[in-house]
Amino acid sequence: MKPLKLNYKRTALIGFAFFGILLLWQVYDSWCPTFLTDIFARNIYEMSSAELKASDPEKILNVQWIVGIIMACDNLAALILLPIFGNLSDKTKTPIGKRMPFILVGTFVSAVAFPFIPIFFHYNNVAGMIAMMAIVLLFMMMYRNPAVALMPDITPKPLRAKANGIINIMGYFGGAFATVLGLVFVLSHYINTPVAERNLWTIELPFIIASVLMVISALVLFKTIRENELAEKLKDEMELGEQLAAVETPIDDDKPMSKANRNMLLAILGAEFLWFMSDNALGTYVGNYVIYYLNAASSATMILTILGGLASVVGFAIAGAIADKIGRKWTISMGLMITFLGLIVMCFVMPTGQTAANAAHGEFTFPALLYAVWVLKGFGMALVHNCSFPMVVELCSAKRIGKFTGYYYAASMSAQTVTPVLLGLVLRAANAWRALPVYACILTLLSCTVFTSLVKNIKAGKVANVTGLEAIGGDD
């Protein structure tokens, strides 16, 4: 049998698309919920969130449901737009490919709008800030689905789990860089400073740097990946990949989707909805959890992200090999259980006390146990994310990759639409930040139960994969 070849160099270059995505979203998710908390505190209670925390900390919890609604509206737009742009890109034909026009337009508009978010926040303009967030989200949705669909476009099905690992590692380099920005420009110090003394550049520079790097990543992608040439060159390999796909019944575009494949798709998407509800709840609220519950420096959140990212890189690096041995189903199930164990530990994390070093900012020492939680969560969710997307696009032909990528993101974005509002209401009702890990625990366990009980473990056909220097080769 002719060997299928995973070209690591080309796959890493495609990863520049994911580098830009995670770079921007890491800055967005780490900073915007805290921006929203502070700006609503200023407009509703006429004091900064730091002043409100000192005088009446319960009111900080009261505004979280508003923060959740804003973040959920973003995700609701994504739920609608991602499938649309995915479907459009499937049907697009241009001299530079079907995905690249969406990637380039989405990148440049997002990059221009992104630095205006902190400007409007700094000057207490709620409408302007939310409008800029909406523009960024709209054009990132134009970018995101086509960018993610690039990998399965030119990667045979049996090789996609390994390729997805490389893509995600590249993405986490972007996330890591965004995290370093958070260590240099400490958001909690800005938030704890009296409004009249705040320095705009503390929050503006991370957004500018993220925009510039996202544009560079898109230009690298455009320069090195020639969609139309690669589609023609890899035609035979893609057809062989179809024959070896991990599906219960063969894919045929001329016939309706088989019942077995449809049930598999729905089970995967249902479980994905639940684990994204958990993961997004943590991602959206951990910054506020650290600042307003643990009373620690926001730089600790960035260290959490670095440790979780490093653990994720390890997970992405080995997930493909694990899936080859035990199948994608059990790799994902294992990842969910590792994540669940970490979240159980998080339920017992509590605020510590002050030291001389952090007392100057009125902050507590960060509990070291939470670092271990984020390592477990990072590694576990890497196994999950690495194998789940290939499982979804395994169930379609090359003609519908954008559409099925849209299904994948519809499940994740619908979860991310529901969970900020739901958790905001839970926090308000429970009046306790400790409800956050309990909420995440329950959803992670439910997702594991749904996935393990309903998804079949179908392995891809065995391939003689090229290895060594030949696999790195420059046949681009």
Q: Which key features would you list for this structure?
A:
476 residues, mainly alpha, Growth Hormone, Chain: A, globular, disordered C terminus
State the CATH architecture: Up-down Bundle
Order of helices and strands: HHHHHHHHHHHHHHHHHHHH
Radius of gyration: 22 Å
* pLDDT < 50 stretches: 464-476
CATH topology: Growth Hormone, Chain: A
Please bin the fraction of helical residues.
over 70%
Question: What's the end-to-end separation, in Å?
Answer: 23 Å
Please give the number of β-strands: 0
Q: How many discrete structural domains?
A: 1
> Can you say what the CATH homologous superfamily is?
MFS general substrate transporter like domains
In round numbers, the mean pLDDT is: 83
The structure class reads mainly alpha
Please tell me what the overall shape is.
globular
Describe this structure as you would to a colleague:
- The chain has one domain (8-464): Up-down Bundle (Growth Hormone, Chain: A), CATH 1.20.1250.
- With 476 residues, it is an all-alpha fold.
- It contains 20 helices and no strands.
- The longest helix is centred in the first third of the chain and has 37 residues, at 8-44.
- The protein has helices at 8-44, 49-55, 58-62, 64-91, 100-113, 116-122, 126-153, 160-184, 187-191, 200-224, 227-233, 235-243, 259-293, 299-326, 328-346, 356-359, 369-393, 401-430, 435-454, 469-472.
